[in-house]
C-alpha cells in the first residue's frame, strides 16, 4: 500500500473483531512513537499499553464513542469492543509544545497500526481522572488521549462533504462509516 493509499484508508474504526492485536503490531506502534518528530527532540510523549483483557474491560466504561451518532449506532456492542487501548501520556516536566508533539505521535502510531490492518479510534472524550488512577498515571505525567485498537469489522471511507452532510460522519445502509471531507480546492491555494 502506498503512503497515499494508507492515508486514504486509515480512518477511525469503532467496531472490532474479538481477536488480540499481535505483538509485532504493538512493537511497531511503540517504535512509531519512538521515531516521531518532536520539537527540540524532547520526546515527552509516552504510552501505557493496555492489553490485559481485564484491564481493557475496566477502560471500556471510561471512554465515550462517536458523538455525532446515537449511542446505539456509535458505541460498540459487547462483541465489538476494542481488544486493546493505548494511553497517550505527556510528560509535563519536559518543556515545549506537547500538543503538537502528541498530534505527530498519534499520526505515527495509528498509521503503523493500520499498515498491519489494525484499526484505531483516537479518543479525547475520556474520563481522565478515573483512567489516570486506573493506569497509574501521575504528575508530572498527564493523560492526553486514549486510542482504541483492534481489527475492524466494518469499513470506513471518505466521501465528499456537501451542504447536506456537513462535517458529520454517518453510517451508510451497510453500517459502514462515511466521513465527509472538504475538497482540495477548499483546503489549499497556490500563490
From TrEMBL:
CDD domains: Nitro_FMN_reductase (cd02062). Residues 9-151 form the Nitroreductase domain. It comes from the Bacteria. Keywords: Oxidoreductase. Belongs to the nitroreductase family. This is Nitroreductase family protein.
